[in-house]
UniProtKB/TrEMBL annotation:
Transmembrane segments: none annotated. Residues 5-67 form the DUF2007 domain. SUPFAM superfamilies: GlnB-like. This is DUF2007 domain-containing protein. It holds the Pfam family DUF2007. Gene3D superfamilies: UreE, C-terminal domain. InterPro entries: DUF2007, N-reg_PII-like_a/b. It comes from the Bacteria.
Length: 73
C-alpha cells in the first residue's frame, strides 16, 4: 500500500467490509479494499479484509464510521 493510505477498518467477514466500503463511497470517500482471504480456504480459514483511505480523508471517514455503528457489527 502506498505511504499516504491509512487502514481504518478490518474484519474477517468480507461482506461487512463491502458494506462499509459502499457507505464511505456514498459520502465521497475514496476507499481501497484489501482482501487477505485465501480463496482456496474462504470457509475453513477466513482471513482479514481491510479498508484503507487516503490520509487526507481519514478524519471524515472515521467520523462516518463512528456515526454509523450499525454498519460495523
Amino acid at each position: 500500500m502506498e505511504k499516504d493510505w491509512v487502514k481504518i477498518y478490518y474484519t474477517n467477514q468480507a461482506f461487512r467490509a463491502e458494506i462499509v466500503k459502499g457507505m464511505l463511497e456514498e459520502h465521497g470517500i475514496n476507499v481501497v479494499l484489501v482482501n487477505k482471504q485465501d480463496s482456496a480456504y474462504l470457509i475453513a480459514l477466513p482471513g482479514m479484509a481491510e479498508l484503507f483511505v487516503h490520509n487526507s480523508q481519514e478524519a471524515e471517514a472515521r467520523q462516518l464510521l463512528a456515526d454509523n455503528p450499525e454498519n460495523l457489527s
